[in-house]
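<given_protein>
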Amino acid sequence: MTRINTNVASLRGLRSLNRANDLQNTALTRLSTGLKINSGKDNPAGLIAGETLRSQISSIEQSIKNSNRANNVLATADAALGEVNNLLNQVRGLVQETLNSGALSQSEVEANQLQVDAALSAINRISANTTFAGDKLIDGSKAFVTNLTKADSAKLADFQINEAVFSTSSTIEIEAAITQAAEKAELRYGGGNLNSASTVELSGSKGSQVIFLGGASTTGDIKNAINAASDVTGVKASFDPGLTFGLEATQSFANVNTGTASVNTLDAQFGATSTALSTLTFTDARATQTEGSDASLGGTISVVFADTVTAGTTTNTASVSSIATTANGNTTITIEIGNSTSGTAAVTSTIADITALINSGTSANAVAARSFISASGSTAVTVSTAASADLAGGSDVADIKFLDNRNDGSGGSVSALGGEVFVQFVDAATGTSTAAASISSVTTNAETGDTTIQIQLGKTSGTTTSTIADILALVNSGTSANAIEAQSFISAEASSANAANTSTFSVQTSATQLLGGNDGSNNDITFNDARAYGTEGVVNVVFAATSAANATLSVSVAATGTADNTITVNLATDAFGNITSTADDIRTFISTDTSDGAATARGLVNVEVEGNGTETVTAQAQQTVDIASRILKLNSSEFGENEFVAVNVLDGGFTTTTTDNVTESSRDTGKDLEAVINGQVAQTSGLQARIKTASLDASLSFNEDNNVRGRRANVTITGGGSLFQIGQEVSAAGQIGIGIEAVNTARLGGIAGKLYELGSGAGKSLLDIGPDTPGSALVDIVEQSINRVSTLRGRLGAIQKNVIDTNVNSLGVALENISEARSVIVDTDFAETTAELTKSQILSQSGISVLAIANQNPSQVLSLLG
């Protein structure tokens, strides 16, 4: 080349040298950083892919850390729950030990209770103090917050939200609907009362028991025998109610008698003028402390003054000439007046003479008259003839009834109303001879709540004058401040006959307590048809009451129509005619009395009572016993496919049927309910329905009353719970929401009761074990508590093992693969890059040499000039 202005070879050499240097620099950069892509220009597409993978790696690494932290949180909760489990098992052992009461002293039982109290306190302390990074774990803080209406709450026995992920929604709706109701296992017995002994093996989900039924067993006896073994078998017997007399609360009451009976009297007045009359008084001698009326004493008494002596006859003295008693008991006493012989037959008998005759006469008639009358009067005024006149004004002792007027007179027990009520008749202040009746005081004891109402009796000239009518008006209509206050505690009533009674009350030395009030929880009584299925006719029942005093309880049975029977229960009364028969009295009488009426009634009905049946009943109009009640139903105690009832007759006859009452069967199995939750078919067991999806794990248990096809219940989750982000995706797919309910003595337990009730003074402690608090109730509470804690631990453990641990493993594998893929894209391959570096170094050195040669070419042109 002989041109010198342009050295093309040099330019070409320079370009190659620069390219070699760039390659060398790139190789050096990759080797020094370890990255194949150090800027976007190195590999734009690779950069995008590498950064995407790097973001994914970052999220996976954090998800693994989140999972491990979640595992730590749940492990902390599980450890605390394990301690609670240990304490519950200790309590279970203490309960079991205490049930061995024959070998323990009272002090040992008390010591065991102290241990139970300490364990319960420790459970509450663990619940309150189990924390992770300052957050409480098992005190309910981690539970889901739910909302449901009162109507929905009434449909559910329980519900549990185990897991829920809200995602983009602020609430989660859970709607459960029953598509097919659950069933208990059921067999039926309709054979009526037994005529011969039978031996039956009864089996259920809890076990089996051999039951020996006597030859005279009624269907009620059969029911009781089956139910006595229900804790062992899981089978319960019942009737559909045939006829129930539902009785409400009743008022406390007290009857108070007037002091003494009023006596019949007759005032005969004699004298010359109306201004100078003297009185001869006859008094009924038959009267007693309690009886003074003619009806009670046997008839009326009449007195006649006669004068049959004429002038000129022999002198005669006063006498009782006759005593005549009619068939109806009325008696007439005739008194012959004494006369002189002055020729005018003038009367000589005075009031004093007649008084002496009646009270002290020795003749047979005079002595006989004293059993009817006595006389008073001592003046010398002569008597005269008088027509027959009756002694009048007598009355028997009567009574007034005071009623508890609290609760607007609707009745109730003393414990429900707040204290006893007492009534007392008192005298006016000392020295007061005349006073009006009044409510003198209404006093309530602040400590006991007992109230005493004192009623001051009216009096005149030192004698009490208050009658039943007076007290009725005072108590029910009095307007004084004390009377108005007393009306909030008592009212008063009396029969029309007693209200018209004229006998008066006496001062009482002590107050009378109102008794007999009840809450209406122990007096309902049910009659079930005891006859065999298919028997013709119906059974009627009536409670008859009488106002007669001291009536006794009795039962009579009358055949009515072709095959119908009517049972009449004649209720017992007290001395005032108040009904005293309780529901249990009637049940016991019909079940055990040897009278013909009771024996016949036993073959017609079985009797059941509400509670202990110790409250009194009232008169009831005739009603008919439902014939469906003759069927004895044998049901499993719970619902579901795991429940069954089986009857194996070992001896005698005892035929059971299916629910059609005809088809014979000896075994039946229950059915689980069928339900959908949020449109998905739910897993079911008994009355419980459960849904388990990626975003929701919840169960709802319907109560027995709402075990109906088509029944719906809604629960809304509004917040709460613990959200753990354990996956790459920020969505339900990468999250778990866990709810941990409070684990303390107020929440642990079940349908048998709550755990706190085992504490001292809470009603179901070891010291309370007895007939009213069986030991099995305590065992059930503890075992239900253990089951609840164990279930929670199992659920958390399942999440740890099957969700978190597997998530960590899968994320680890993903991290490996994604990291490897990113490494291929962005990491330097040192073998390849060092080769490139060597190549670029050689090219660079070669380029320099070539460039030097190219740069020398123009100088060679000078040789042409020279």
